[in-house]
TrEMBL record:
Domain of life: Bacteria
Pfam families hit by this protein: CM_2, PDH_N
E.C. numbers: 5.4.99.5
All residue ranges annotated as the Prephenate/arogenate dehydrogenase domain in the record: 2-285
Entry keywords, A to Z: Oxidoreductase
Cross-referenced SMART domains: CM_2
Protein name: chorismate mutase
Cited SUPFAM superfamilies: 6-phosphogluconate dehydrogenase C-terminal domain-like, Chorismate mutase II, NAD(P)-binding Rossmann-fold domains
Originating species: Pendulispora brunnea
Key word Oxidoreductase present: yes
Leading EC class: isomerase
Annotated ranges, domain Chorismate mutase: 261-352
Keyword Transmembrane helix: no
PANTHER family: PREPHENATE DEHYDROGENASE (PTHR21363), PREPHENATE DEHYDROGENASE [NADP(+)] (PTHR21363:SF0)
């Protein structure tokens, strides 16, 4: 793949286009509703897709069916079409209905937004939803996203939307409720808020940064979101009634959030072993930090800076392979070693 055609140049489209060009791909973009830089601008859908290896549909989910219908007459069987929507069941249906068996297509969801890219958060994760109509399309999409430095998760469209209803959509729903209930608190929380609210404040900040249109898409375009919302509402109503009932005076323990460890001796024992093992891990981290400091001194002697991007990339790839050998989730292990590398860089900078 060399030329990527991007249909849609909104907040996500712009950020995604930058990621594509930084990875060395040529980019062409078209959006009749917003300004596209002249260097990458196409003047029509036909011009956009002509000669492209990959066509990325980056439009709001409600506009997906119309967008696919617009590109369908111009794409060819040697091209790949994918979407980047935050829900998958309906976009996949739009791709299948508009392109069918003639044009290779696959549904994808980059689990990052413009804020994540601005903050250079890593790793970048992407869900790919393989389909039986074009099984090879998922492999091609994986190659593309891995070329961008992304970690790939494969799920069916239905499993993806169920997971997003319970996580992404639920986070937006809770944050919207807090914002609507106390806008002043959401806009300017006091500096002395406890850690329990700090986590919620970060969620509200993230929700706002992801743009308001996403709230509608996550709830109205995800077929599983309504049931999750209803379950939460019923749980909150039940909790509220319990707080105001006579039972509080006679049985205050009924309001406690149960500690799982007190309910299971086996769990209590397992946690004790985990605590012991974590102390051993910290000893190893101390040893690793000492070695990182030694490496930092060697770098300074060579006139080299702290960051060695090629070494870090090689290290992370190797750790992911080791994780697979141990039957561990490579993406989760990648997270662990990203944190360890931050610690190592910090130790090395202290020696500057």
């Amino acid at each position: 793949m060399t030329l990527v055609a991007l249909l849609g140049y909104g907040r996500f489209g712009r950020a995604f286009g930058d990621l594509v060009t930084e990875a060395g791909f040529h980019l062409r973009a078209y959006d009749p509703y917003t300004e596209v830089p002249e260097a990458v601008r196409a003047n029509s859908v036909a011009e956009l897709v002509a000669g492209a290896d990959l066509v990325v549909v980056a439009v709001p989910v409600p506009a997906m069916t119309a967008a696919v219908a617009e590109i369908a007459p111009h794409v060819t069987p040697d091209q790949l079409v994918l979407d980047v929507g935050s829900v998958k069941v309906r976009p996949v249906a739009a791709l299948e209905g508009g392109l069918g068996a003639r044009i290779p297509w696959v549904g994808t969801h980059p689990l990052f937004g413009p804020l994540s890219l601005t903050l250079a958060e890593r790793p970048l994760r992407v869900v790919i939803c393989p389909n039986e109509v074009h099984p090879e399309a998922a492999r091609r999409a994986r190659y593309f996203y891995e070329s961008l430095g992304c970690v790939i998760i494969e799920q069916s469209a239905e499993d993806h939307d169920r997971a997003m209803a319970r996580t992404h959509a639920l986070a937006f729903f809770i944050a919207k409720g807090v914002i609507d209930a106390d806008k002043a608190l959401a806009d300017d929380p006091p500096p002395f808020v406890p850690p329990s609210f700090q986590g919620l404040a970060r969620t509200m900040q993230s929700v706002r940064a992801d743009a308001g249109h996403l709230y509608r898409a996550l709830h109205q375009d995800n077929p599983f979101a309504a049931d999750v919302r209803q379950a939460l509402i019923e749980a909150l109503v039940h909790a509220d009634r319990k707080l105001t009932s006579a039972e509080v005076a006679t049985a205050p323990e009924s309001l406690a959030i149960p500690d799982l460890g007190t309910r299971s001796p086996e769990l209590h024992e397992a946690r004790a072993h985990i605590d012991s093992l974590d102390r051993d891990l910290l000893v190893l981290l101390r040893r690793r930090a000492d070695l990182a400091a030694r490496a930092g001194r060697a770098k300074r002697a060579l006139g080299h800076g702290v960051l060695d991007a090629s070494r870090e990339a090689e290290l992370l790839n190797q750790r992911r392979r080791w994780a697979e050998e141990q039957g561990l989730d490579p993406a989760a292990v990648d997270d662990v070693f990203q944190a360890i590398l931050r610690l190592s860089r910090s130790v090395q900078r202290q020696g500057d």
